[in-house]
Design goal:
Rossmann fold, 12-stranded mixed sheet, 18 strands, 28% helix
């Protein structure tokens, strides 16, 4: 009779290095592929899994796999989990665009947050007729609400933990953050829209299932989380990385100001050039590892 042994998870630190380099949607992925030379005859091998393309090859002294996570929290979580289960990934680096939430930032600037929170994990509540809202017994608000929207921390778990626990924000990896700080100090001048862009490491980013283009909500998000940027994937990516115990770093160039502009949101104008800037910053971080 065969002896069945338990399959134990292999942590990233115990594997040969394989960097996952990813982006969410076509302009971001095009910038990433251009930065790393993913093209026919460029030395990368494509693998198709569940309709997704993964390009594996080398970038300098690193072995990498490049892929698209898709837009939205669900796509990002699902597609990153597929990558982690099919490839021996030891670290995750993402480059893409986001809406600027910190009023000190401008379009084109690049932020590399230390942590990621969900802004829309929440209860939507009825008014109580007295100027407040009817709170369900389970909800004990920790932060300011936005009208009927009452944020709540998400619960998460991972190997070795007895149960789900509330997580206010999911961290970026300290070693990758240190590499980012070194890389930022060596970057040449980066310009877009006729100005030199600022690249900074630190603070909080937020993500949710909505394209944020509302000035009042933007102000609230900055006030509650001191958020620097908002997008539709990053916290889900950081959540999955945390659950799988794989280091992650997320780089976001600001394609718009999340509703602070006058008139139409300018993301369509800025997404391609700003994606290129974010990809160049990611390449500088990879070169530091």
């Amino acid at each position: 009779m065969a002896l069945l042994l338990p399959v134990l998870p292999v942590k990233a630190a115990d594997r040969p290095p394989l960097l996952a380099l990813c982006a969410a949607y076509p302009p971001e992925l095009a910038a990433l592929r251009a930065e790393f030379g993913v093209q026919p005859g460029g030395g990368f091998t494509e693998t198709r899994i569940k309709g997704l393309s993964f390009w594996r090859g080398r970038a300098g002294r690193h072995e990498v796999v490049i892929f698209r996570t898709g837009v939205s929290l669900v796509n990002a979580a699902y597609q990153l989990q597929i990558a982690l289960e099919r490839f021996p990934i030891t670290a995750i680096l993402f480059a893409g665009v986001a809406g600027g939430v910190d009023p000190s930032l401008q379009v084109g600037d690049v932020v590399i947050p230390e942590r990621w929170a969900y802004h829309a994990e929440a209860a939507y509540l009825n008014p109580d007729g007295k100027g407040g809202h009817v709170l369900p017994p389970f909800l004990r608000p920790k932060v300011e609400n936005f009208g009927m929207i009452f944020p709540n921390e998400v619960a998460a778990t991972r190997e070795g933990e007895a149960d789900f626990r509330r997580i206010a924000a999911f961290p970026a990896d300290p070693a990758l953050l240190a590499a980012a700080r070194r890389a930022v100090g060596k970057l040449p001048e980066l310009r877009t829209g006729g100005r030199t862009v600022a690249v900074s490491v630190g603070g909080t980013g937020v993500a949710g299932p909505v394209f944020l283009d509302h000035a009042g909500y933007r102000e609230w998000v900055h006030r509650v989380w001191q958020a620097r940027c908002a997008d539709m994937e990053s916290t889900a990516l950081a959540h999955v990385a945390w659950s799988n115990e794989v280091p992650i770093l997320i780089i976001r160039g600001l394609s718009d100001l999340a509703g602070a502009q006058r008139g139409a949101n300018p993301i369509d104008t800025h997404e391609a050039p700003v994606s290129g800037i974010a990809a160049r910053v990611l390449r500088a971080v990879v070169d530091e590892l």
